[in-house]
Amino acid sequence: MSEITAIFEEGGPLGGVPGYRVRRGQVCMAAAVAESVAKGRNLIVEAGTGTGKTFGYLIPLLKKGYKAIVSTEAKNLQNQISEKDLPALLKLMGLEGKVKTVVWKGKSNYVCREVLEGLVKRAERRKTPECSGDAVDIIIKHKSRVDEFIKAPGNGELSDFEKITGITSVKVLPRLAIDGERCLGDYCSHCEDCYHKLIRARAQQADVVIVNHSLLCYGAFWEDYLPDAEAVVIDEAHKFPDTLKQCFSVRFNSITFLKTLDRVREHIRDALGGEKELKKLEEGFLKKGRKDSKRGDGEINLFTADRLDSFISVIPEIKQALNNLEETLPNFNEALRSRYTDPDNDYCPRKEFRGRERDLPVVFSRSSQEMNKCMESGFLEELNDLDHGFYPVLKDFLEQLDNAVKIISNAANKAAEKALTAGPDSPEADFSAHMSRSADLLSNYSATLKEKIFPELSPEAELAEDDNPPFDSENYYRSYVRTPGHFEISATPYNPDREFREYFSESKINLKHAHYIFTSATISTGGMSSFDGISESGNYNYFTDFLMRLGLDNTTSDVMQIASPFNYYRNSLLCIPEGLNGLKKAPGTGQIRPDAILEMLADAINITPGGIFILCTSYAAVSAYYAAMYQLIKTQRIRSRLLMYQGDDSQSKEQMTARFRENGRAILIGTKSFWEGVDMPGKDLSMVIIDKIPFPQMSIDLKAERKYCEAHRSPASGYGVFELVDMPRAIIDLKQGAGRLIRKEDDTGVVVICSPALTDGGRKQYRDDILESLPPMYFDTEVSTIREFWDWHRKHDKPEVSS
Question: What is the pLDDT of residue 16?
Fold first, then answer.
């Protein structure tokens, strides 16, 4: 018995915990984690629901004293680890006070001290609330508790501020959050005592740091930003490749850019003393030596000195430059139309291309009811035509952008020169700081477009003598998305394996000594229904997709599958009704009508004791199932239940899940965000209905992945693009959806998958692969079996405990 496995045994630290039971899978996982880090290898562990994977990786890391980073996708798991699991283990293992732990979140979770200080100063100046009920009024009403927060801010998070002050208003909290574009960075007076910087400093000294995937990926890009950990645990690892890909994508987004223009205008207003003074300046009424012209926080009387006139006079020119930029943006929407777009019916393909959409390098989405949901996306290379209007529009925009940066930078430099003699606290220094920040914000966009998305337009490319294209089209693709009034241009990795290698596994700037533990309940694409134990050596074939996306292989990494300790065969039923093949189909789409499916399942729904999830693959399907369910309840074919659906603007996801739990017999119809991360143990959830196999919806990103796969796959493998790209995504999502049902060992319930492709009559070649990937539930093809399942379980008050 090793020192790791001994912790789990009856005489070990966990043995005395009431209700604790040794789980062989958890013990084996802990031993494998310790061995992998010691040997300097990576480990990928698929641990079925109920394994206790959090303890499975925390215990060996704590016991061996490894400095570790634990990364999660969702906040609720982050909170569970930091507030429940980790404190409990430290106490049980006698490590309280000996191990430093830090929860490090993204910037937007923390209060900006500069903004808070400004609001407090304005509140002190106003003294009594006005009728406006603005942020300053709210601060005045809660002034004493705001002062308490300033004295003892906890971690300086927005949640700390909300808890201490009692302020929950959307007029205050979003404004207080650190905003990457609003942040003054090194120009900020609170640069050294910024709450986020303080947490980062603590993280550098901690033994265990808990982060999320986005922060981990962002931090890996900057030298020495992350603590130099020996082990990095990536929990909810099935989400990590997508997060990595998105974090290393570069985007120019028109909505974000418009917000940046507003930020620049805010900087101008702040520098000049507020909106009133700016308006006077624009109207030409500004008079020298005005005594009542003050900066927004009441500290600076900017217009009492003639010496400022020389650079304040440039403000109207800056305003005009910003307006010109804003007026240029609509030109992109027309310029981004592809040659496949119907000129008379926007967001639709030309008639000659209809029916061939899967083969086109563009994707169309049109809603006849809501124009704002129409969309066209495509590869930018399709617009690389000298006769096409995109590049002239882009070049004109870049000229306007560089001109605005030049004007603002000149104003900042002139003010900075005067600040040398006037002093660091002078109005000139303040003005220079605001203008410099404004120039930085805009120049970042110029750099993004010229250096990262369109390097062929950079000054360096124009001076280059060779004809080699500077854009790395072998590893990245450029794409666009346009909707009414909005567009986005991006450069994205085809596959994030290069990024993982450069910034993680072979990084020279961060995590130089780290080895990686990847774990999730859903990483593999097969094997879970065929065994009920532990595959310690693992089958690499089941992990092919995950390994490929991160560039890992058996020379550096081990894989491990741990089956859930729950007795799925006894406590759950998987029903794929053979009767699906005879149901009515919707004209045009060929899809089975939701009302026909629900009519077939009506008796099963009526006898289901707890709540029901209906998981759909699109919002259109959510609407269709809601309408059908509403009608069946109205006609009393299905007994009355609380009915909720995702897309109901009157309720948030959190509110819906809370009502679902409280009711106990509700029906909730949802799409993507309800397929995972929603925990409904017990009788709160007794049935999960899945509308169809969740193959990834067509998008330009999916087309890019297919294109990359086609170029790099080995024909000798016998696998095509569908098996290598579409199938793994569908299997992981299906495992997540079905996994909503059984969350603890005495849960019981039914999963119904409404896909004729998985029936005997409609059998597809991938049927067995999909069924093999799911937990070993009892399987049947007759809806009547659902009644038999519940009748049997009603006779047994307490399901047997699984071995």
Answer: 77
